[in-house]
Design goal:
Blueprint (H helix, E strand, L loop, with lengths): L4 E4 L4 E4 L2 E5 L2 E6 L8 E13 L4 E10 L5 E13 L2 E4 L4 E2 H7 L1
Antiparallel strand pairs: 1-2, 2-3, 4-5, 4-9, 5-6, 6-7, 7-8
The structure holds zinc ion (ZN).
């Protein structure tokens, strides 16, 4: 059975089978060079523009900002979860922004 994925609320959420599973405003790490010049970029998601399942992983595209260097741009193929036995299993973002800032 196929999992139904789409973006909702002007890109604020990724919906999986009619439930909002992944929201913006979380910080994700993006490894070297894929987004900006930082060795490990900490990217605050601002908006999702699309979502897909190229393999067993669920990947999203969207707009984000590196909170280390301030680079803002398009994110492509950010893994936000995976499909296990027909169920969506979300990856944990690094931290909510508030937690990240308080420990910085
Ligand atoms: Zn950066």
């Amino acid at each position: 059975m196929a999992i139904v994925l789409w973006t909702l609320d002007d890109g604020a959420w990724i919906s999986v089978d009619d439930s909002r599973e992944v929201g913006v405003s979380d910080v994700w790490t993006v490894s070297s060079g894929q987004f900006c010049g930082c060795e490990t970029a900490h990217v605050l998601l601002e908006e999702f523009s699309g979502v897909g399942v190229p393999d067993s992983r669920v990947v999203a595209s969207g707009v984000g900002m590196c909170i280390d260097c301030g680079t803002r741009g398009d994110l492509e193929k950010l893994p936000v979860g995976r499909i296990v036995d027909g169920e969506f299993e979300p990856y944990a973002p690094v931290a909510a922004l508030s937690a990240f800032v308080s420990t910085a």
